[in-house]
Amino acid sequence: MEILAFGVQGDERPLIEKAFAAAGQHEVRCLDVFLTEDTAPIAAGYEVVSSSVNADLSGRVLRTLAGGGTKMIAQRSTGFNNIDLDVARRLGMTVSRVSYYSPYSVAEFAWTLAMAVNRRIIRASNRTRDFDFRLNGLMGRDMHGRTVGVLGTGKIGEAFTRIAHGFGMNLLGWDVVENPACVELGMKYVDKEELFTSADLVSLHVPLLESTHHVIDEAALRMMKDDAILVNSSRGGLIDSEALVSQLRAGRFEGVGLDVYEAEAGLFFLDKSLEAVEDDTLARLITFPNVVVTSHQAYYTHDAVGQIIDTTVRNVADYVAGRRSENTLVPE
After folding, report:
1. What secondary structure does DSSP assign to 8-42, as a single string?
2. Which residues belong to any copy of the D-isomer specific 2-hydroxyacid dehydrogenase NAD-binding domain (predicted)?
């Protein structure tokens, strides 16, 4: 059987092809285009389709896929808020995801963003390229002794917390369930309001659910310290982007690091450098000197991508064998 993989990055393609070849059961055809309503007809005749994190798997797209003979979706990500699971269930499709991969990739990148905005790394690098070696405007702060607020203390949040502990920071956490490993590190669990008002650095590590959509809204932003650092390496929809722009225009926040953006679909992973920017909110965010925006690359390490691909290969094997695992979303 040949599997059709959408949204495959250049670095990712040889890893996917090698993994499926090593499994020795199925072939894979890799496309760099993303799965959307316009590209879904390409999958006609493919029983198994693999999708990337920014794929459009709305009901309309799923019905197009099912009409072309697709019976299984193997998403190469942990998040699945882009998939209409109810429609997939009604169509009798199997849907899987990657429930686990290296948490260190995202946690380390979140800290990379935090330190980049704290120590003005982008500004400093741009200056030195022009042989401007002045230090004015580059002063940062020690992280040691300051307070970090970790919103979401699962595997990635725990890895982020361990790094914060290494910096010698005071640890605040919020989650629906306390992580004993974080408590052992000295984390104090508090409500969101106390975390927002007390933290010098707030990092987001919760999934995007109906209950967490815009968890960082205007009210939450106003609670935070004027000189706080905010980092989001989880899902763009956790932050109300327009409210964030409003607060940044008011001169608030020491720095903001964003690896995700709530309207990133159709933008991230693509080259838009020769096109007019239609998203005014994103265009405004990028112009702030204390904001660093990257293109959803926190997971993008050889280790994590390798684990994602290996799990995807196993998910396909499970589907063919009629097995379900912790990665199977539909059927439950």
Report:
1. --TTTHHHHHHHHHHHTS-EEEE-SS---TTTGGG
2. 112-298
In angstroms, the Cα distances linking 61 to 42, 55, 86, 87, 206 are 12, 10, 13, 10, 27
Residues 112 and 250 in one domain: yes
Tens-digit pLDDT profile for residues 224-268: 999 999 999 999 999 999 999 999 999 999 999 999 999 998 899
The token duo for 93 is 């499709």
Helices (H), 36-91: 59-67, 85-90
- Residue 281 is inside which H or E element, if any? helix 280-287
Residues taking part in catalysis: 235, 264, 296
CA distances from 253 to 11, 35, 45, 259 (A): 35, 37, 51, 17
Residues in CB range of 116: below 8 A, 6 or more apart: 122, 255, 257, 292
The domain total for the chain is 2
Torsion 50-53-55-58 (CA) sign: positive
Beta strands in the chain (DSSP E): 2-5, 27-30, 48-51, 72-75, 94-96, 147-151, 170-174, 188-189, 201-204, 229-232, 255-258, 291-293, 328-330
Do 93 and 207 lie in one domain? The reply is: no
First to last CA, the chain: 24
- CATH number, domain containing residue 59: 3.40.50.720
Whole-model pTM: value is 0.94
Provide the Cα torsion 326, 301, 72, 35; round to 10°.
140
